[in-house]
Amino acid sequence: MKNLKYILILSSALFAFSCNNNDDDPENGGGTVTNPVETNPANTQYKPAFAGQTRISGMTTNTEYKADIITSALTSPWGVKVLPDGRLLVTQKTTGTLRIVTTAGVVSAPITGLPAVNPANQGGLLGLCLDPDYATNKMIYWVFSEAVAGGNISAVAKGKLANDEKTIENATVIYRSSPANPSDLHYGGRILFDQTGNLVVSTGERSVLQTRPLAQSLTASLGKVVRITKDGQPAPGNPTFGGANALPEIFTYGHRNPQGLAMHPVTKEIWESEHGPRGGDEINRLKAGTNYGWPTITYGIEYSGQPIGDAIQQKDGMEQPVYYWDPVISPSGMTFYSGNRVPEWENNLFIGSLSATHIARLVIRDNKVVGEERLLAGEGQRFRDITQGADGALYAVTDQGRLYKIDKK
């Protein structure tokens, strides 16, 4: 309880400091400062590595906004991306199909032609992204769970959306994680293009004790963020690791189940959200070649309540999360806001929360979280992914099949 008391005292001090320093200053997020949004007790007495790493002061958006349900007709949507014309392309996890949804809520017939997915448990059709030249080549890239010899893997495929938008043409698997394992958990599954035109893909460590240590292995692609070309080859400029047989596609390692990737609109750095165990959900700023620690260091414990490994949270050579949650919120897809509809949200990070059923808004300054807000907490939805539309509004999908539009009133 001593360390928990320290956290609460620290958060109160930060709150008091913020209240005396321009509650409505845009540098502080342009909202009203409140007490920390998390009021439930932590699972551990672990001490944060620095002030503001957890339970930061809350923020309340001053601009009036609304959330409208565009449709409830989707089937377990997992990823959502905006098309050049403003419509939204959505992956459906369990059916292995895509849908196109207009901003008025008109849902297309299922788009077929993708490789078969293994939809068991956490598997299926997962994250997606559009080619930077999509307007001319109609190419789409996606992550899915694939059944192969030895079990299941996270795979990356690409294909062209047909002119009639009913099917994917020439779907090709360009990358497969390794090794395969019978587990149907922790696939990771997010994908995006970085500023160099290469693909950044997150993979999970597959959850089971057999594969968990592979998050630290440079000869396995589990528990990693990999960086590859459009053809699935290791991207030029990737970090070089010592030791024999290190995989050249590895960008960062030591991840548990990274289900969120987003590029900062100003710095162009890639940020990541990651599921912890019981406690220890993380937000990380990815730096090439960096070890993010799992399972050696963590702010969480086993679901049984037992410690993980040596129960340490810091170790030389391992990066600290920018922010963590205990208890968990189960962070999934995320996006930075760069629109002008709600100016106080500029460059804020929005993350879909599954178990805590809200959208987390993190106010970030100098790569540190300075405020947190919970949006749509009364909807009772598991928010799986979120993106910014062509109209500057935010669009979020939920496991229950909804697509929300979040915008200024």
Automatic annotation (TrEMBL):
Domain of life: Bacteria
Pfam family, one: GSDH
Statement: the UniProt record of this protein carries the keyword Metal-binding: no
Residues spanning the signal sequence: 1-21
InterPro entries: 6-blade_b-propeller_TolB-like (IPR011042), Glc/Sorbosone_DH (IPR012938), Quinoprot_gluc/sorb_DH_b-prop (IPR011041)
Gene3D superfamilies tied to this protein: TolB, C-terminal domain
Keyword Signal (UniProt): yes
Residue runs in coiled coils: none
Positions of the Glucose/Sorbosone dehydrogenase domain: 74-404
Keyword annotations from UniProtKB, A to Z: Signal
Database matches in PANTHER family: ALDOSE SUGAR DEHYDROGENASE YLII, HEDGEHOG-INTERACTING PROTEIN
Protein name in the entry: PQQ-dependent sugar dehydrogenase
Organism in which the protein naturally occurs: Flavobacterium panici
